[in-house]
Amino acid sequence: MSAKGESWGSRVGLILAMAGNAVGLGNFLRFPVQAVQNGGGAFIIPYLVCFLVMGIPLLFIEWSTGRYGGRYGNHSTPYILDTMAKGRIWKYIGVFGIFTNIAVASYYCYIESWTMSYVYHSIVGTFNELDQTQITDFFNRYTTIGKNTTGIPYESVIFYVVCLLLNTYILSKGLGGIEKVAKIGVPLLLLFGGILAVRGLTLGTDGASEMFPNANAWDGLNFLWTPQYDSLTNPKVWLAAAGQIFFTISVGMGTVHCYAAYLKSKDDIALNAVSAGFMNEFVEVVLGSLIVIPIAAGYLGLDWILQNASFGMAFQTMPYLFQQWGGVLATLAGVFWFGLLFFAGITSSLAMGTPWMGFMRDEFNWSGKKGAWSFGLIALIVGLPTVFFYNQGVFDEYDYWAGTVSLVVFAFLETVLFAWIFGIKKGWAEINMGADIKVPIIFKYMIVTVTPLLLGWVLFASIPDMFNKVTNKDTNNKEWFADAYYAENFDSEGKKSGVVEAVDDSSIKLSFTNE
Ligand code: PHE
Ligand code: NA
């Protein structure tokens, strides 16, 4: 960030920047995958509980922490936490948050770069006349470096670098640049997201079923939304749910601190925090579950989704859907959908650059330019392994450790700091200062008890899971849930029966016989 006295241009600008920060690829691509991998309806209950008892409280904590630190002229998590408590340890914890940002930004920008590339390929007509297998194949080639046969050598690397350059350039322009991108990107994203969601809903047994006789959009929605209670005691599901909540509302790594540091003491934070949080949840739970899953289920069937759930799912399916719309409409749909994913992505990845830049400014008095370019360079170095070894699972490792575990750890620590060290008395006053709404008092008690306890439990209970990750003994949730789901929902109706064909530590194969 550049000039000293910088602040948000307007309240609308602030809200859109914060909403842009929250609404991202997490809503459209990560949420459906997390939901599917953790049992669909089995995931939803822990997910909603986490939003209410950890998500909302953490939003209050981060907004007020940021505004508080900003009052003392600080713009980065380490310095902001330092104003709240004595002891260098908090500064180091803040630095840990910055590392999380860099790690997440590095793989996040890789997906963001796919969206740029897919806009390009929609325009030049690469997807025209391709069938579903060819579309899937295109994606697989695109993400296998060295095997690129998309015409441009090292295409995915090139788009990745371009994407980082663009982020860096906008960041070097300071807060105003971020605000401008959000003002364009967020409204557009909502508009086209709405259109596609309607399309996802109406993809029933009609047209799609002629091409894929066993596929149905509603299978996808049923799977997502049929609650399953047996997962409630599974810590793995809770960790995934908490991780997704933090990831999607952008807490647990300090971006909200940095944005809120540019607020004035009299500015509202309570209503703003809640609005940004609920807006994000609307986009995630409604738009996020109505697009990729039902559309993929509509064209490829639930079996395919259960076996292929990943960030890439939308890239492997949506171009084919658009081809069915034909001609100019196909091109336009491709441009808008991937373009809007791009806007969702960039308004979030920009946020991930601000903690590093703020820290360089607080610590070394670096200019916004220097901060931005150094950030871009570091993200590039950290990110290249995910680009080159995408298909070897490196990507998922980054997303697990940086995008899930680290967020929960950081959220736990900052809640303890806020509630018990800074003190809830001061903290509660800080949340309510300038507030445009009366924050229900229950949140005050939650922040001191339920929020840190649940966070602590999730972390503690997940230690075996983390251990298995390290020792590579990971067992796959997908297999277990898919099996249970099919046993429950299909055998009994006599429509389909499924067996788990082969299972090893890292992969599953399911085979289904249709009757
Ligand atoms: N919330 C963003 C998304 O859903 C990702 C993000 C996480 C952005 C953390 C900033 C900080 O895509
Ligand atoms: Na989000």
Automatic annotation (TrEMBL):
Record keywords, A-Z: Membrane, Transmembrane, Transmembrane helix, Transport
Subcellular location: Membrane
Stretches that traverse the bilayer: 12-29, 41-61, 89-108, 152-172, 184-202, 237-262, 282-302, 322-351, 372-390, 402-422, 442-463
Keyword Transport listed: yes
KW Transmembrane (keyword) present: yes
Pfam family name, one: SNF
Topology in the lipid bilayer: Multi-pass membrane protein
Cited PANTHER family: TRANSPORTER
Protein name in UniProt: Sodium:calcium symporter
